[in-house]
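Friendly challenge for the regulars: who can give me the C-alpha cells for this chain first? No prize, just bragging rights.
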Amino acid sequence: MPCTYWNEATQTGTWDWTQVDVFAQAAFGIGAEPFFALSWPRSSGMEDYIPPGMAINPATGLPYPDSYAAYAREWVRHFKQKGWPVRFYEIGNEPWVYFGWNVTDYTKLQNYIDFFNAAAMAMRAENPNLLLSNDAIYQSRVVDYWLQHGDDVDFIDFHKYDANIIGEYTEQEMFVRAETRHWNTALSARQKWLNARGKELPIVLSETNYNSAWQGGTDSTIYNMAGAMWLALMLRTAILSAVSYTISYEFTGPGEKGFGMINDANNQPWYTYYVSRMIGGNLAVGDSILEADSTSENVRVIAWNHHGKLNIILICKATSQETVNLQGITGQLDATWIDNTIPYTNPQLQAATLNAENSIVLNGYTLMLLQQAMPMSLATILMLIISGLYFVTR
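First reply, four minutes later:
Bragging rights claimed.
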C-alpha cells in the first residue's frame, strides 16, 4: 500500500513508493515485467484494501469512482515519471467475490463496471499503452454483460486453482482438471471479444496453483512430484492454448499462505520450481511449437524449437514405470529431469546424456526435458512449417 493516506476532499494522496519500486526494479532486473493488482472488492466491503482516508460509497460498498480513478492514475503517473514501462494492471483483484461467481447480482456487476471504467479512463489518459483487465472477465455471464456496458479490457484474465479443500480430488483427478478446467471458458471469452469488438486479446493466467486451501493447513502436494506433474500438465495446456503468461501464486512458501515454489526455511527449490525452470527457461515468445504425439495416455509430450535447439518435454503422470521410445529422432540428447526417486523434501534436478535410439525409462511421476541442437537448415525449415515429430510409448 504505497498510499499511506488519501485525502478524499482533494482526491490526492500521501505516498511512499519504496517497496513498490524495489519490486518493480527486481522484476525488470531479471527480464520480467511487474503485474499489479489494485485493491480487492469484497462482499463485506473494501476498507482493508484501499488507502486510509478513502471513502466508501454506502450505496455500492465500493469507493467513489472519480476518487478511485484519481488514485489509480497516480500509480501510472509514478512509473511514467520514473521512466519504467509498467504495463499490466488488474483493477480490483477477484471482483467476483463482490458480485458473485459468474454473476449472481447484476446490480453489483454494474457498480463494479462503473468503478472499472472510471479507473481505466484515468489510467489510459496518463499512459495509453497500458494493459488493463480483471480476473472475472473470462466468465461467460461477465463477458456477455461487459461487452454491452464495459470499457475495453486488454487481455482475458483469470485465476486457476483446481482444488479448494485438501484431499478434495485424487491426484489423477487433479491431472484431468489441470488440462480441462477453465481453458475452454477463457478461449470462449476471447472469441466473444473478437466477435463483438474485433480484437483478439491475449490470455493471461494471472494467479494459479494446485490448491487454494490455506486456512486449514497447506496442501503438501503443492511441493511434491504430484504437484509438479499438475503444474507441468497445466503449463503444457496453457502453451497449446496460446496463453501469453502464467503467474504462479506464490514464489516462496510455506510462509503465510503456503503456496510457494521455494522453501522459505532454507531458500531451496521445491519440485514445482524445477518445472518452471525447465519449461520457462527454455521457451520464449515466437518459438515454433512442433507437432508431437504419444500413444500412451500415461505420457504427455510437447516439443518446440528454441533458438535452433530442439526441446522435448515428457510428462509421466502415472505412478507406474513407463518406457518411452522416440521415433523420428537420432543422435545424442541432453536430458534433465525430476522424478519420484528422490523425496520432495530434498528435491534435485537429475541430468544425463541419452541416445535417442535407446528406450527411456520413466520411474513413475517424471518431468523430463530432452534437448538437441538442430542443424541450421532444419531449424530454418521448422520456423516455417510444422515438423512431423512423433513419440511412441509403451
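DSSP finds ten helices and 20 strands in the chain. Confidence is low (pLDDT under 50) at residues 379-394. Your move, everyone else.
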